Amino acid sequence: MKSVWPILALGVTLAGMNDAHADDPTQPPTASTVAAGDDPFLWLEDIHDSRSMAWVAKENARTAERFADTPQFARTRDDILQVLDSDARIPYVNRMGDQLYNFWRDQAHPRGLWRRTTLAEYRKAEPAWEVLLDIDALNKAENRRWVFKGAQCLKPAYERCLISLSPDGGDAVAVREFSIPRKAFVEDGFVLPVAKSQADWIDEDTLYVGTDFGPGSMTESSYPRIVKEWKRGTPLDAAKTVYEGKPSDLAVSASRQRSPGFERDFVSVAKDFYHSELYQRVGDRLVRVEVPTDASADTQREWLLVHTRSPWATGGATYPAGALLATRFEEFMAGKRHFVLLFRPDAHTSLESHAWTRHHLILNLMDDVKSRLQVLTPPPTPAAGGAWTPLAMPDAPAMSTIQVVDTDPDHSDEYWLDVTGFLTPSSLERGVLGSEPAATIKQAPAFFDASKFTVGQHFARSADGTRVPYFEIAPRGLKPDASNPTLLYGYGGFEVSLQPNYSGSIGRAWLARGGVYVVANIRGGGEYGPSWHQAALKANRPRAYEDFAAVAGDLIRRGVTSARHLGAEGGSNGGLLMGNMLTNYPQLFGAIACEVPLLDMKRYTHLSAGASWMAEYGNPDSADWNFIKTFSPYQNVSKGAHYPPVLFYTATSDDRVGPVQARKMAARMLAQGHPQVWFYENTEGGHGAGADNQQSAHMHALAYEFLWQQLQ
Length: 712
Hints:
Blueprint: H1 9-15, H2 50-68, H3 71-85, E1 94-96, E2 99-104, E3 113-117, H4 119-122, E4 130-134, H5 135-142, E5 147-153, E6 160-166, E7 173-179, E8 184-185, E9 191-195, E10 198-203, E11 206-210, E12 226-231, E13 240-244, E14 251-257, E15 264-272, E16 275-282, E17 285-288, E18 296-300, E19 303-307, E20 312-314, E21 317-319, E22 324-328, H6 329-333, E23 340-343, E24 349-356, E25 361-367, E26 370-377, E27 389-391, E28 400-407, E29 414-421, E30 424-432, E31 436-443, E32 453-461, E33 467-475, E34 486-489, H7 504-509, E35 516-520, H8 530-534, H9 542-557, E36 566-571, H10 573-584, E37 591-595, H11 614-617, H12 625-628, H13 633-636, E38 646-651, H14 660-671, E39 677-682, H15 693-710
Parallel strand pairs: 34-35, 34-36, 36-37, 37-38, 38-39
Antiparallel strand pairs: 1-2, 2-3, 3-4, 5-6, 6-7, 7-8, 7-9, 10-11, 11-12, 12-13, 14-15, 15-16, 16-17, 18-19, 19-22, 20-21, 22-23, 24-25, 25-26, 26-27, 28-29, 29-30, 30-31, 32-33, 33-35
Helix pairs in contact: 3-15
């Protein structure tokens, strides 16, 4: 997500702590910022250039020699791989018609099997599976290294599917039509070459397609700008244009809703990550669904649901941000604006998600980051009035998460739940609302002895007084003597919530060795709804970093650990978080693992899919740079400062964030003379940095071994 140099930076960092902040370790030292145009490492942005790859190979070898060429690394890697390859894992399924479909990787099938079974078989301890597509066999036959990226099958028969295959684990995929009855790709069927494509079935002989149609057909964010209707047997360049967006749009897509009796076509124009326009396609006309551009809207049968991100005044009422509203779709399109308020957030409770069954709506709520389900039944007809009837559902166990993982909204009230916690392996439950209470149908195994640990939730005070929650998983009887190796994990962006979740890998590689594991629910995430996220947007981004630093400071204040024994880990947007911990709060940490990160915020919009995130961070090519530069680690790293040891890991094939930001940051720090800077780049795996379980185990083991060694 090493060299033979001695481990010196930790002691130097503590000895060199900025005296001005010695009495308040949560305050950042003053950073010296390099000139924005001073970038001697632009050559590393040429991803596959021989000079760049030679640098990568050299740094990989140095890092592997230091951390991966040891018996302990091999044990950690093998322990993690046993978790990832275990035959006792839950084979999660999604229903399509009468069959349950699953994608499975294990030691014998590292690239995986796409397979299916029946509910009766699935209830058995060892179900009989019908293999539809063996990716390893496909790779052998085609001499490729395909990574399975999903299947989209045509309702209601589910006999024709669009299979997405990545050549290296990145987001760009080839799309190929597949016949389930024949268990083979369709000869002369629909095929799209490798690109960041979007496709959906209209009928058996027609698709909606957004892809790379040639120069100018993709947005500045590297996603489809044009969506077309493509008929079977015709060349792609003859497809009929349905909508053409602007280069500055994020992406354009189209889809058909296929609920029997409620078939509808929609075009979605994403302006940025949080603003979009939704249109219903009626013949050749596009009719705007007039909901706020920052709200999410979805339809199911006769209903339109709107989840607000900002207050909305309509129909004589004002609804708060984070509310869920319902109305009848056809009435709304006819101009009526009468909504039923299904959920109103408060200071402690937010809506995480919702899911339809045939007759009910399941709301997944969070109370101070802990799960609770609520079921609502809509009125059957307009004459029945507007009231939605609640139906009781059990809450998740304490310090656990409960999620709806699948439903069958067109045909039944079946629902599938995943229930998990930091110390509780996942259980998969199935029920039918109104007739069958949820019962465990599959249980994941325990990969470490949970009886040795406890879970607690604590709250830190951020710099502006905001109360920030965090979860702590620690050995029973933990001594608050400031000596415990502690790993603090965070993300803090894109309205993503971090909830309790069981990880056999963390249990084996960190907890079982005596470490403490902490998850920080900082602003920028979605733990308390849209306002929690929006509190750390753009110029307010440093609030997320202050929150994380406050949690680190609280762990130190409580004696759980000390800066010498406290490590931090995060990836992607969490990698940007780690970069800011490194440059702004180095005195708080003994080591940092920075994974598939954003770091050069001056050039991020020109790298990979970076232009798509300007709604989150701002536009560095405008006056926004005045605030962005305050949280751009690549510009703020200083030759004269003292930093904790840091490991950057990334993937050559990451076409979302890209490997160049981690490359450049490591290269700049090494050139500045910082001795404890390590870098590792996997060639495959895309943004996940691992194309199979073995690669994932290697990357995770590398991070944990690096952190454990530094924090002793």
